[in-house]
Design brief:
The chain is of the alpha+beta class. It has helices at residues 66-74, 92-103, 119-127, 137-142, 148-157, 160-169, 189-202, 260-267, 287-291, 328-342, 359-372, 379-386, 389-399, 412-423, 479-492; strands at residues 2-8, 12-19, 39-43, 47-52, 55-59, 85-88, 108-111, 132-133, 174-177, 181-184, 206-208, 212-219, 222-229, 235-239, 243-245, 272-278, 282-284, 296-306, 309-321, 324-326, 347-352, 425-432, 440-445, 463-465. 42% of the residues are buried. Bound molecules: flavin-adenine dinucleotide (FAD). The site of flavin-adenine dinucleotide has 39 residues, from helix 2, helix 3, strand 12 and helix 15.
């Protein structure tokens, strides 16, 4: 049986078709009056609200007289609002946001599509989780590579020092190591994730695992709920006036971060800044690099040269692996290297293996080493005084000098070449490794469309963002998790 009610006004036409819905029709959407399952509501011939039993959705919003319309309509809809806020994604940002909202008395649902929370935290910091960095604020902020200004209010709300106090308060002992990097004293990243989950649950957060959000539902420019696929594989709608989107980026997708949040945000009118891997190994075609796989270097100065210009310089550790160039200094260079490669630039990494020594000082050092050696000692022995053993033969090859040539026969110009090589060991960078191997995702929800003071969307009321889903990323050293904690904390306050 079908009943039709038609209302009309200056700019409003409403029709209700009430049908006796059969189970086989559930989940289907019709926009035509002859299809008997719909309770539909049209505005200016351009908007349809489809009301199915207990569910409603709004399609093609337009700025028209919604208030009148909505008040008429609302009387006809059974309201089943259950949660004050739904948080999508139980990573570092989502767990923090959920706990903070619950602490403030909100009824909180945390949705996680994986079988457990914080999978990325659990593998972070090589299994030890470098959860923040204890540097002074200004230095800390200089390590945020994108949109540090936007991040500032979040950092002020919940700084690195707040993170340290927070974890101590929830019972996790911490240690600070070289470079002000903060780790759990147990050395186990799992302890960080477990402590966060325990805290959130103690605060009253309900966590649903194996539950994938597939749509953020809105009505009249405001959030009204989330459509999910539940653990049995069925679509369901859950109502809430607030949603915090904490789905992370697209790096290490096996942890659950597969970029769903970008799609949700885009559908709701948000611009997504191009996503690309950051903190990622760099690929080189160099046969020298292939011949020294496994070699780790400390105290190396690495310059990133793009189209002949030095664009960034880093000091620290690196290693040669089967994937290419890796390690802290390379990861820090990678963000600019990736951008340059995308733009078709010529990219090189130039290593200074003797950065503490000027060329003159190095020249004098080599002379001293030569005087101390037997004249008949091979060139390899001289190199051994200057380099780790695995580099000796490959670098001699690079110079075109046999390791067995007596060092007394090495000509001054060959010494100059050696000095140049030690200070300018160059690798052509041909590519970067994929998202699967990137520590973070650069790009994401454009911050211009998000209020930095609240992290609420400027388009959709009740929609908030936190963590890596935003266009924020930083260097290695605990900065990225702090971004997740700071933004999660601010978003969890649900400031209007
Ligand atoms: C190997 C590795 C090591 C790292 N080490 C460090 C480190 O030591 N220090 C540091 O500061 N940073 C580190 N990082 C970076 C840091 O872990 C991330 O920046 C941070 O975890 C991001 O947190 P997030 O909550 O924003 O996103 P994520 O941790 O990615 O969490 C997003 C969550 O959302 C869930 N989700 C996604 N889509 C949906 C959906 N549709 N429905 C329901 N749930 C969904 C995912 O399953 C996931 O649990 C590391 C990253 C990697 C990959």
């Amino acid at each position: 049986m079908v009943e039709l009610f038609l209302f009309s006004g200056a700019n409003v036409h409403i029709f209700f078709i009430i049908a006796k819905a059969g189970g086989e029709h559930r989940g289907k959407i019709y926009s035509h009056a002859e299809k008997p399952l719909i309770i539909g509501l049209c505005v200016d011939d351009s908007m349809v609200i489809i009301l199915r039993p207990k569910i409603f959705s709004l399609y093609r919003l337009k700025a028209v007289s919604f208030n009148t319309l909505f008040s008429i309509f609302a009387k006809n809809i059974p309201q089943s609002k259950v949660y004050d806020v739904i948080i999508i994604g139980a990573g570092a940002a989502g767990l923090m946001a959920a706990g903070v909202a619950a602490e403030r008395g909100k009824k909180v649902l945390l949705l996680e599509k994986m079988e457990k929370a914080g999978r990325k935290i659990r593998i972070s910091g090589k299994g030890r989780c470098n959860l923040t960095n204890a540097r002074p604020a200004e230095e800390f902020l200089s390590k945020v590579r994108t949109n540090a200004d936007f991040f500032l209010p979040s950092f002020k709300d919940f700084s690195n020092q707040s993170t340290i106090r927070f974890f101590k308060k929830i019972g996790l002992e911490l240690v600070t190591e070289r470079g002000d990097r903060v780790f759990p004293a147990s050395g186990k990243a799992w302890d960080v994730a477990d402590a966060l989950v325990r805290w959130a649950q103690d605060e009253g957060v309900e966590i649903q695992y194996h539950t994938r959000a597939v749509e953020i539902r809105t009505v009249v420019g405001r959030v009204c709920g989330v459509k999910i696929i539940n653990k049995k594989g069925f679509p369901r709608n859950i109502e809430s006036e607030n949603v915090i989107l904490c789905t992370g980026g697209v790096s290490y997708p096996a942890t659950g971060s597969t970029g769903d949040g970008y799609l949700f945000a885009h559908r709701l009118g948000h611009r997504i800044e191009e996503v690309r891997p950051s903190l990622v190994p760099l690929v080189t075609g160099s046969s020298l690099a292939r011949s020294i796989v496994g070699v780790q270097l400390r105290n190396v100065n690495a310059r990133l040269v793009v189209d002949g210009q030095v664009v960034r310089e880093e000091f620290g550790e690196m290693e040669f692996t089967s994937r290419g160039l890796e390690g802290a200094v390379i990861l820090r260079l990678s963000r600019d290297a990736v951008d340059a490669l995308i733009e078709g630039g010529t990219v090189k990494v130039v290593l200074d293996l003797k950065s503490a020594l000027s060329e003159d000082v190095l020249q004098a050092r080599i002379s001293r080493e030569r005087e101390a050696l037997e004249p008949s000692a091979g060139f390899g022995e001289l190199l051994r005084k200057l380099l780790p053993k695995p580099l000796v033969a490959p670098l001699a090859r690079e110079l075109g000098i046999s390791v067995s040539v007596p060092q007394k026969d090495i000509m001054p110009e060959q010494v100059d070449s050696l000095i140049y090589l030690l200070k300018n060991l160059t690798f052509d960078i041909t590519d970067y490794r994929p998202f699967d191997e990137a520590i973070v995702t650069a790009g994401g929800v454009a911050v211009e469309e998000v209020d930095a003071a609240t992290l609420q969307s400027k388009h959709i009321q009740g929609l908030y963002f936190a963590g890596e889903v935003l266009d924020l990323d930083a260097d290695t050293g605990g900065y990225n998790l702090q971004i997740a904690f700071s933004t999660g904390h601010l978003a969890g306050k649900l400031k209007k």
